[in-house]
Amino acid sequence: MTKKIILLSIFASSFIMAAATSEVVTGPDGRLVVTVSDNNGRPEYKVDYDGIPFILPSALGLDTDMGDFRSGMTILKASPVENINETYSIPNIKKSTVHHRANSRKITFARDGKKIFDVIFEVSDNDVAYRYNLRPQGESLSAIVLDEASSFVMPEATTTFLCPQSLPGGGWKHTYPSYETEYTLDDKMGKNGEGAGFTFPCLFRNGDNGWMLINETGVDQSYCGSRLVSTGADSYKIAFPQEKEMKGLGWTTPGLNLPGLTPWRTITVGRDLAPVVESTVAFDVVDQLYEPSIDYAANYGKGTWNWIMNGDGAVNFDHEKRYIDLAADLGYQTVLVDGLWDKQIGRDGIEKLAAYAKEKGVALYLWYNSNGYWNDAPQGPRGIMNNSIARKKEMKWMRELGVKGIKVDFFGGDNQPMMQLYQDILSDANDYGIIVIFHGCTLPRGWERMYPNYGASEAVLASENLNFQQHFCDLEAVNAATHPFIRNTMASMDFGGSALNKYWNTGNKKGGSERRTSDVFALATAVLFQSPVPHFALAPNNLSDAPEWAIDFMKEVPVTWDDVRFVDGYPGRYVVMARRHGDKWYLVGVNASDKPVEIDINSVGIYEAGKTVTVYSDDKTLAGSVKQVKLSPKKKIRFSIPKNGGIVVMD
Ligand code: CA
Questions:
Q1: Is the pTM of this model over 0.90?
Q2: Rg from Cα positions in the chain
Q3: How confident is the model at residue 289 (pLDDT cuts 50, 70, 90)?
């Protein structure tokens, strides 16, 4: 499995012999191969799959306040291969039981014989994960990491599917950067988004050879979140947060206690998109950071959300009461009370609503502004979640009312002090048995496993944009056919959608944004978009104006999953995939392309022959219907998904 290649070269001028060492780490099935070397003193790695180059020789290394360790380095030693073979259970991701098999090696880089850092590689059948362990140097027991050299040089034919990093200071009341920009799909390499690179995860297509999803995981308060910036026609590298994030008051270069571990850089590789959709690498390589104070899985469930159709002005006692009734009628567990409740409902009002909800078997989620001094968003409550004393007092009050969760919005970027805030909110909330949803925020990086009371994050152009602008309604299917391959495959996504209103407003009246997608599409996204704590954009009028079968499905649809399977698709065009809850498979698809997507339910290999399945499908005019279909082994059971339509099959 390992080999050592000694290359000799002679410097003509000095006759000094320089040796380059290479070390190899191979995935358990032998197809994914990582080669690490010290080429002329430059720490390097490359990634091949089935002998095909996916990452060409690319830099490793760190520049720190103790020294620049990006060149002048040699491989001193490499640990033997350690076989990782573990099974873990996790209730809040795409798969409830994960069997993680990987090969791990620690490659130690040195200068002048002194150990500087190790690069720890974990290679599974389709995922490469690596991180640095920076060692103490002399009296230095702490370090500032000024730059991380980690780069990704790609074959010439590579095309990109990327989400530009937004520039700080823009957006609603200077709340950027949040991960809320439009993807560019099937684009050339060599571009740099809006000038600041791209947010994770980043998807690349290696011509006809396959796909590659680059991400990071295991980011907590001991580092910052990173992004990917273009560094040439065919290369990208890790970059730290932008200077003006958090109004320029946070630091961009992370500080580390030594020895100190950086977050994991991950590369998911496949000949098709199945490894990308089914990957659990974001969770495989991280640990749970504290014990849950309660059984959070018992509190997972669906909720309603008044603000999404009705806006700021409708966050009032009567409207929220109506949405508590709606939640109760649907058999949902929660109601999310959005921003401005402090002014428009008041604490007494919230206490009355919580009591009313309790009678109906429903619990509240409450919205908070994250700030602080890093945004000018007027929505309150403000100045609580950034202050540990006020925060704990507030959470004690919430626990007394039976509040199940909070939604904290408008964060200030990806720098280390912001990561500290995310972790502090999560840790305090766990002390009070509260689930946390983040909005206007960064991508969660392994947080489902690290923080047991973590719920989900926005970090996407979510359903609010369907309400704000017709443009996003026109592109709803394109985006829905993108997220399962990128944003939502690496982390839970709080999208807040599955609307059954034709128009995004109170009472479903003609005017404002008009939905282009079908009702079956709405049902399909309830399965497609994974979060254990979704709040759907359903409205009280849907109980009378939406098809009965659609409401019945939205009552029944699970929020936790035991397994996932990719069936077919192409980012931005269409997706067909299946999720299993218990012994029941939900096969769903949506189509954004002009060409109808044809599915033969028999040939997807999910349902046993002879089984009777329920199929929700659209006709050419996007009119939905539901029927029972008996599968027979010889017959093709063909369905077609029209543009902006969907399909849902369940047994
Ligand atoms: Ca938002």
A1: yes
A2: 25
A3: very high
